[in-house]
Amino acid sequence: MTENILVRNNVNVIGTGAQTIVFAHGFGCDQTMWRYIVPNFIEDYKVVLFDYVGSGQSQINDYDPVKYSDLQGYAQDVLEILDALALKNVIFVGHSVSSMIGLLASIRGGSDYFERIVMIGPSPRYMNDLPEYYGGFEKSDIEELLTMMQLNFIGWASYLAPIVMQNPERKELTEELEQSFCSRDPRIARQFAEVTFLSDCRSILPDATVPTLILQCSQDSIAPVEVGQYLHAHLKNSTLQQMTAKGHYPQLSHPEETTQLIKAYLANM
């Protein structure tokens, strides 16, 4: 069973440190998105990388549309990976939707699994719920995005990639992201997008106890500044750090700043 889980999620473990740090990718990506960050941690940490089922080199035959119809299915997989590797007290670094997946896993599995959580570009709710909450998207925006994915998957990828990368001078990053989007199974990608953009994790925030760093990117079209401020206000033991990095993928566009802020936070553990 352990071997099946590690194969299912294409789990890779590198580094020799006593403390384990887990990097969890966001929607439309895979573990290669961490390649500029990981070399900065392997000397001091044991680094765990994986792909969610349906992403990267995971076992696509293990994709279950019922299990992955909400974020809890992905949170279950995170806990199963930690159990398969016999890991406790890890540092969990989640990008985008993985921030909430990690939070759900920490609540579901108990705080023994997680010592710290680092959230990069997180959002507990992408859809606006005005006047109480601003998430950045109207329901019609999300419906249009999902319809575009269904009707023209390649067109959707080429449309979305430059908007979310937000580094027009770095065309190679936009092209990489577009290719990453396009490499997904369209059916699975669309369901993951629906699960992500229609999720609402606001009600569980008071249940979270693990100390958390929120890395808020500037000019982020997916998770605007108001979202980071909301999370900080509703998450106990949270630290909010505004980044100079633009866009939603600072681990690609600004790996030095991303690394520095994570290390500075962990140095105070």
TrEMBL record:
Cited PANTHER family: ESTERASE-RELATED
Record's keyword annotation contains Zinc: no
GO function terms (MF aspect): hydrolase activity
Alphabetic keyword roster: Hydrolase
Record domain AB hydrolase-1: where: 21-258
Protein name per Swiss-Prot or TrEMBL: Sigma factor SigB regulation protein RsbQ
InterPro entries xref list: AB_hydrolase_1 (IPR000073), AB_hydrolase_fold (IPR029058)
Similarity-based family: Belongs to the AB hydrolase superfamily.
Organism: Paenibacillus radicis (ex Gao et al. 2016)
